[in-house]
Amino acid sequence: MSSSSLPQRNAVSKKKKKPVRKRKKKSFLRTLSRLFLILILLLIAGGSWLYFAPSAHNLRYLIADTLITTQHRYMAKYIIGEDELKDRVKEYNERFVHMGDEKDTHTIVQPPVEVEKPLVEIEEVSGTGYSGYVMTVNDPTKVRLGVPGKIGSGEKVSSMVSRTGAIAGVNGGGFADPNWKGNGFKPIGLVISQGKLFYNGLGGKKSTQIVGLDKQGKMIAGNYSLNELSDLGVQEAVSFQPRLIVNGKGLIKNAAEGWGIAPRTAMGQRDDGALLFVVIDGRQPGYSIGANLYDVQQIMLKHGAVIAANLDGGSSTVLVKDNEIVNKPSSQYGERYLPTAFLVFEHPEQADITNIWEGLDPAKIDAGKKRTH
């Protein structure tokens, strides 16, 4: 056979094999696309259930209530609708006002002193989705309301504690906070410290929801006018709501009425006079999501509170002891600048707290102005 009759190498038809790397890449992309499709279907199914299923009603409103407590309140309209959002906020405000109406009749009964207790005790508390602390102040007459030290800006609670020589402090009342970027210098409602009216932002309102203390250290919480507060001898007070417990009974019936999940601060009192400050961290998945007001109420009742009220929460929530921040504030910027804080002193008569708003017109204070320090 001649060489010309032999098949030539380049004449043989061979099918090229695809590189292994390309086959693996295509397989990965197919798997990824399938997972993406499954995810889309799950989102559609979950969204349909959330919006249309009767069984999802409570969850839908829990999400909306939680958003209402944040700077993203407007997003709640995508969960329950814009009209329902307005009605929801109005309903809460009306309910909170009503919760402050019942007359408080609790009295302080000092038990015989068997063993001297420390002025301040702090314990950890936790529950479903939340972690936090309860600070007990065994002598309520040792508490004063702290305010900022400079005009034009609120002050961090840790700074107030350090500057005034307090041994502990907790954030106090609310404040005007445009776009959640306020300077912390414009309180909402009233501020009373050492028996003096430091700030009156009521405008034409005759009364406000108060959280405070009288001369004997008895806690005052509820809806009061300035004249009533004067008659009661209120020494330290801020405006905030709602009252959670009155005459030993809780005012919030269940978690569904608990105004969403958020970081919380609240103040209460036992019948022996000891003050209870509940501080719950939140908005930190893996550690603490937050609590609703029913959770806070139940913590207070468990610790013997006969009266309790909500204080400013959210990113304002902070507990300071011995110049150290005990909890984990939720703000990405760290501790916030605030107008008020309840401070604990070994010798409160030596506390130097002056009226930083003296001579200022509350209506002219710019809550959004950049801090001066």
- Element order, helices and strands? HHHHEEEHEEEEEHEEEEEHEEEE
Instruction: State mean pLDDT (0 to 100 scale).
Output: 88
Count of discrete alpha- or pi-helical segments spanning 4 or more residues: 7
Find the structural class using helix and strand composition: alpha+beta
**First-last Cα distance:** 102 Å
Shape verdict:
globular
Unreliable spans: 1-14
Helix amount:
10-25%
Largest sheet: 7 strands, antiparallel
Computed Rg: 29 Å
Number of strands: 17
How would you write the strand order of the largest sheet? 1-2-13-12-14-10-11
Strand content: 15-25%
Number of domains: 2
Please characterize this protein's 3D structure.
- By secondary structure, this protein is an alpha+beta fold.
- The chain folds into two domains: 54-94; 108-364, no CATH class.
- Helix content is 25%, strand content 24%.
- The chain is built from seven helices and 17 strands.
- The chain has a seven-stranded antiparallel sheet, with helices on one face. It has a five-stranded antiparallel sheet with strand order 3-17-4-15-16, with helices on one face.
- A hairpin with a 4-residue loop joins strand 7 and strand 8.
- The longest helix has 33 residues, at 20-52.
- The model is unreliable at 1-14 (pLDDT under 50).
List the topology elements.
Elements: H1 20-52, H2 57-68, H3 77-80, H4 82-99, E1 120-127, E2 130-137, E3 143-146, H5 157-164, E4 168-171, E5 190-193, E6 196-200, E7 207-214, E8 219-225, H6 226-232, E9 234-239, E10 243-246, E11 249-250, E12 264-270, E13 275-280, H7 293-302, E14 305-311, E15 319-321, E16 324-325, E17 341-344
